[in-house]
Amino acid sequence: MTETDRRLSEESEQRFLDLYAHLLVYVNDRFEVIGEIETVADLEQHYTDELLPLRNTLYNESTTDLIEDFVEENPPDLSEADLEQVTAWTDFVAGEFVVVRYREDDAIFLDWTEPPKAYAVRPARLPFAEVWDESALPVPVSSVVLLPFEDQIVYDGWIGVKNIIFGGSLSTDIGDEYEEAKHRFGIIDSLPVPEEDEKTDAEELRFYMKNKRNRERYASEIEQLREKTNELERIYHQEMGKARARSLGRELRELELNEAYVAIYDDRIITSAPSESEVRKLLEEIMPAGKTDHPYIYHFDP
Q1: What is the β-pairing status of strands 117-123 and 139-149?
Q2: What's phi and psi for 6, nearest 5 deg?
Q3: Coiled-coil stretches, from where to where (predicted)?
Q4: DSSP per-residue string spanning 120-179
Q5: Bridge pairing between strands 296-300 and 260-265
Q6: Could you report the per-residue pLDDT of 102-112, keeping only the tens digit for each?
Q7: Average pLDDT over residues 242-257
Q8: Which of 4, 9, 30, 200 is most buried, by CB atoms within 10 Å?
Q9: How far is it, in rounded angstroms, from Cα 220 to Cα 222?
Q10: pLDDT digit string (tens) for 136-180?
């Protein structure tokens, strides 16, 4: 089994399909969408595509009320545990997403509305590999419904692939949104959607400073944060120095220099010495009061 084939266990998958089928039959009985369906057995005689109008009815009407009415009436005489599971579906998430990557047991669906969120989704009806190849990612998808099931997130098997080709700046935007989603919420692997993790100013600033794209994208937020406290100003300069150090090592190796410790203040080298203690002593002499620890000390070891 490949990574993109991993699904729920056979037992869990069958439980999901059975419960979902009962709910669809109930919706059909309420709205008479497909005349010849009266039981789950009738429903199973139809192809998935033929059942799409019925599934859409579930989400076009007052979905929460329909699910709650089904649970209250319980026409198939489900167990309490099954009813609790169906009740959990009132926390469904529906809309358009971008499938950004596969992991060992799931796929990451990115909702890039504001704020962006990234969901870990497992297939309950059709393996992802049968829908699209991993090499095609990122893939924009529509008409998706995510449902909580047994402490995981599944999609119900219906999915529309939008005819959009990602490339260039659009792919970069998707990557940025994915990173922001992970920063804000982590990878969401259960529903309902959790509250956004509260970040300290220092955590926010480090995220904004993480790479060049972030520094450009969040330039105004960075300026506001760095001015709040001396500690945030220190973090700002430290992160700027780290960013400069990534390219500095290559430049120093090209000069065939020996091992050294280099103090970087933003993108400038302001002093260096053979040892870290010597560099710190020099910084005490040349830096303004209260800013001795602002430069980033880079250990160059060719």
Answers
A1: unpaired
A2: -65, 130
A3: 208-242
A4: EEEESSS-GGGT--GGG-SEEEEEEEEEEETTEEEE-S--EE------THHHHHHHHHHH
A5: antiparallel
A6: 988 899 999 98
A7: 89
A8: 4
A9: 5
A10: 889 899 999 999 999 999 998 888 877 655 555 556 788 889 999
